């Protein structure tokens, strides 16, 4: 088994023998939205916000310095309504790495900016909304970006995948190239995960797991 496949599968080793591991928070969130995003009932919308909020909390986005900590889970409702608008429908339900045309990419980065603006509209106009938060939301709901947190970026730095400091078009395209250059290794990992957990992980979640694990391992040795 190659280094990429091994590294991705080692991601699950961080869970140890935990029967309710943190890694399931993303999976539960992603599956929830992929199977139920067309339902507009009020009760489902409340569950949407709770699901997203718990996943974000599980992955460190409710730290003391975060504006999320000062707000209820309902702060996410306008953002989720935004993501579910018809103009962003092309971002749903497609593992896009083979066909990331300019229209699709423009739609993705338009969504990025509008998520930032939506939180600012709900709180204060100059609110700092990090790439880490935005990409973790998109990863949890749509599965089409990695989460640009410090460990992921550190992993990209170690592997010299530049630019790695923020979520930009250049950075995203470089990650797509890396995936396609190593697609057999990523497919082996995807198939093994399917066999073990009966869930098909999208390409950008595999990318996220790979670089995050590299960053984590080098940050804790």
| Uncertain residue ranges | none
Cα Rg: 17 Å
Structural class by sheet pairing and helices: mainly alpha
- Count helical runs: 10
Which word captures the global form? globular
Secondary structure: number of strands: 0
Quick check: average pLDDT? 90
Write up this protein.
- The structure is a single chain.
- By secondary structure, the chain is an all-alpha fold.
- The protein has one domain.
- It is built from ten helices and no strands.
- The protein has helices at residues 3-10, 23-36, 42-58, 77-83, 102-122, 131-141, 150-158, 169-181, 183-197, 203-219.
- α1 (3-10) runs parallel beside α9 (183-197) and α2 (23-36) runs antiparallel to α3 (42-58).
- The mean pLDDT is 90.
List keywords for this structure.
221 residues
Structure in a nutshell:
The chain has 221 residues and is mainly alpha-helical. It has helices at 3-10, 23-36, 42-58, 77-83, 102-122, 131-141, 150-158, 169-181, 183-197, 203-219. It has one domain.
What are the SSEs and their pairings?
Layout (H helix, E strand, L loop, with lengths): L2 H8 L12 H14 L5 H17 L18 H7 L18 H21 L8 H11 L8 H9 L10 H13 L1 H15 L5 H17 L2
